[in-house]
Amino acid sequence: MGGLTSTSKGLYNKGKIGMTFKLPPGLALQKVDERIMTLNVGPQHPGSGHMRLIVQIDGDYIVACDPDPGYVHRGEEKMAEYRNYILNIPHLERPVIHDSCNVLYPYVLGSEEILGIEVPERAKYVRVIASELNRCIYIMYWLAIYGIFLGHSTMFMWPAGDRELLIDLMEKMTGARVTHAHFVPGGVRNDLPPNFEDVCLRQVNYFEKRIKEYAAIFYDNPILIARTRDTGILSRQDAIRYGTTGSVLRASGVDYDLRVKEPYDVYEELDVHTNVMKEGDSYARSKIPWLDMLESCNIIRQALQKMPKSGSVRTKLKPNPKGKGLDSVYKRVESGRGSLGCYIVSDGKVEPYRVKLSVPSFRNLIALPNLLRGEKLGNMPSVYWSLNYWPVEADR
Amino acid sequence: MGTATGIIRALNSGIKHIAMKRFTLRYPEEKLKFVGDGYQFDPSTGVGIAGYKGRHMLFHDHCTGCQLCSIACEGVAEAIAMVKVPEEFKQNKKSIMPQIDYGKCVFCGLCVDACPFYALYMTNDYELSSFSKEGLIYTPAQLQVKPYVAQDSEIKISDRGATHG
Questions:
Q1: How many domains are contained in chain B?
Q2: What is the model's pTM?
Q3: What domain range includes position A378?
Q4: How many domains does chain A have?
Q5: Cis preceding-peptide flag for A106 (omega within 30 of 0)
Q6: What is the CATH number of the domain that holds A187?
Q7: How close are the terminal C-alpha atoms of chain B, in Å?
Q8: Chain A residue numbers touching B76 (CB-CB < 8 A)
Q9: Which domain, by its residues, includes B80?
Q10: Smallest CA–CA separation between A132 and chain B, in Å?
Q11: Most buried of the four, A168, A329, B93, B159, by CB within 10 Å?
Q12: What is the pLDDT of residues A24-61, one digit of tens each?
């Protein structure tokens, strides 16, 4: 003790306990209750993804939660201002690589309107099939992580393995297993391979049979129900007020699906059924994506049946297509997480003037602090991941 | 449904899988089968031909050194550089051809779409790992070689489930 004070006297005298610091104007020290402990979950914690949750707990109960996204910001929107309409494709699908067709969909729809391109009928059906397959791939990945968050290892292994059935189809269709770069303004990059319809139908039918088996082991499992039922309840009014979308909104009893409400491409001609649950708890939010997958299988079968058997899949573009002057367009689609919008402003140049993505992940995250207040800390992963949140997309 | 029956059903659903065949692929011994010969592009119709987007293949007798692939890659990955080749070609007066750095390539295939002379295609070769960064840079001479890719495994669906075989 004596040695310490003699060697570093000056240093220790500065930080006397009870001394008042003069803070810069505009800043105030936070008052800390002694009962409350602040816990950082993330950004390297596997239970949060690439983001941080600042959780304040009193004993085992969460008092407040402050989500802190922004660790994987890549500047996608700024990058889009320096590349032409075609070269924007590979980087704009990076925010959600396993849902890459859906992430690109609004951008492609918007740039088609700006560039004034007509899309062949067959290409629209190919897009719907690719988009629905991608939705299933995304939800399977999400479900695998939801399983491991709840400590259910089987539910991690099964979706991760069964995803392969659909990834195999996407690989045959587009040539890549994750980042497909398949949609372009004017259609899709390549036609379906020969004999694809039969292979697709067989694998999708088997996939549907397979995911129905998840009910016994996961969704009807009393242990899962005990852990997720009545946790993190989001009421119908709150769900609308916070602006949540997708499965979170449908789990709170709002019948809202852009494929039905604002049909794009050929969704008008397909029979799409919206799954709605009234509970608004974690269990409902985890079950709605599973019901969506079953619905996606139906849509794929319908699209395969109604698709024109031959024809062009891509309108030939001029090199370096341009907009017709000052123009702006907003398009949105139903992605695996909810409504995903893209706002494009063109000033008649080769590059878009501005590309703004309105992402569902960020909208769903806004509800998180209100869902976690009063919950037990052990329920945090299940409530957090049930929001269908993807950190990279929120930061874009 | 009672708690006990629910748990027994869940267990039963898992136990059934002990008798099922393995679905996963034993990768180095088995390799996936792809459709076609790789991603190709037909500039006359403006539509690609479905196939796996793997390592590129360059046809020296078609390449004119127009740099369109390199320009396309500038906005994506900056993986393509135009380099001098020792041979002389009638259609390629400057003797420059693309050299691709697979440490940067994202396999989007937009370079293939950009080529108007049927000179650049993609093949099924995906085993490109190397011990050094220099080993990932493929010169025009290396890109000329058509790779051999073993393809033996496909998803098969039977009444007892799906397998790779």
A1: 1
A2: 0.87
A3: 76-395
A4: 1
A5: no
A6: 1.10.645.10
A7: 40
A8: 87, 90-91
A9: 32-149
A10: 19
A11: A168
A12: 888 777 777 778 888 888 787 666 678 888 888 888 89
